[in-house]
Amino acid sequence: MSAATLALDLGTQTGFALLADGKIVSGSKSFHTSRFSGGGMRFLQFRHWLDDLKIKTDIRLVFFEEVRRHLGVDAAHVYGGFLAHLTAWCEDHEIAYQGVGVGVIKKFMTGAGNASKDAVIQAARDKGFDPVDDNEADALAILFWSQKHAKQTTT
C-alpha cells in the first residue's frame, strides 16, 4: 500500500478526493443527521469514515478547504466542528495536514479567485472528472492544487 493524499471540502456534505496508487477516487459524503440524533453524531460519523479510509489506504497527507468566512452561524459551527475533528484525527495518526484558502483553490482551478461553483464543476469536468456536486469538485480542485503546490505541512 503506497502513501495516499486525501483532499476534503469539509461540511455536512463533505467532498473528498483521494489519490492512492496513482488513481483518484472522489465523491461527496453526507453527514446529515436526523432530528433525533445528538449534536455530535455527524462528527462521530465523520471520524468513523476517516478511520475506514485509513484502514483501506495509507493516508499520509490531508489537504482541506480553509474557510475564513461563513454567511451563517450554524455553518460556521459545523465547519469548526469538522475542522477540529479532522485536525485531531490527523494529529492522532501522525498525518501531515494543510488548509488551502477558498480563493486560492478557485483561482488555481479556474483562473479566477471569485469563480462560481458551476465554474469549478466545469473545470473538474474539463480535467476528465464528473463531480456529483460542488463539494466533490472543490475536493478535486484541492487535490490538483496539492499535487502542484504542496508546501511544508503541519503535523
Estimate percent helicity: 40-55%
**Count of beta strands:** 5
Whole-angstrom Rg = 15 Å
Element order, helices and strands? EEEHEHEHHH
CATH architecture: 2-Layer Sandwich
Low-confidence stretches: none
**Head-to-tail CA distance between termini:** 21 Å
| CATH level-four homologous superfamily name | Ribonuclease H-like superfamily/Ribonuclease H
Strand order of the largest sheet: 3-2-1-4-5
| C-alpha geometry | globular
Number of domains: 1
Give a structural overview.
- By secondary structure, the chain is of the alpha/beta class.
- It has helices spanning 41-56, 73-92, 102-110, 117-126, 134-149, and strands at 3-9, 13-20, 23-30, 58-66, 96-101.
- It has one domain (3-149): 2-Layer Sandwich (Nucleotidyltransferase, domain 5), CATH 3.30.420.10.
- It contains 5 helices and 5 strands.
- Helix 2 (73-92) links the parallel strand 4 and strand 5.
- It has a 5-stranded mixed beta sheet, sandwiched between helices.
- The longest helix has 20 residues, at 73-92.
- Helices cover 46% and strands 25% of the residues.
- The mean pLDDT is 91.
- Helix 1 packs parallel to helix 2 (73-92).
